[in-house]
Amino acid sequence: MLVAQAGRLSNVRYDIRGPVLRRARQLEAAGHEIIKLNLGNPAPFGLDAPDDVLSDVVKHIADAQGYSDARGIQPAREAVAQFFDRRGVSGVTPDDVFLGNGVSELIVMALQALLDAGDEVLVPSPDYPLWTGAIHLCGGRAVHYRCDEQADWNPDLEHLASRVTERTKALVIINPNNPTGAVYSRATLLGMLDLARERGLLVLTDEIYDQITYGGAVHISAAALAPDLLVLTLGGLSKTYRLAGFRSGWLVVSGPRESAADYLDGLELLANMRLCPNVPAQYAIVPALGGRVDITHLLQPGGRLRDQRDHAWARMTAIPGVSCYQPAGALYLFPRLDPEVYPIRDDEQMMSDLLEQQHVLLSHGSGFNLPTTDHLRMVFLASVPVLDEAIDRLAAFLAGYRQ
Question: Hey, CA dihedral for 10, 12, 15, 19, is it positive or negative?
Answer without folding.
Answer: negative
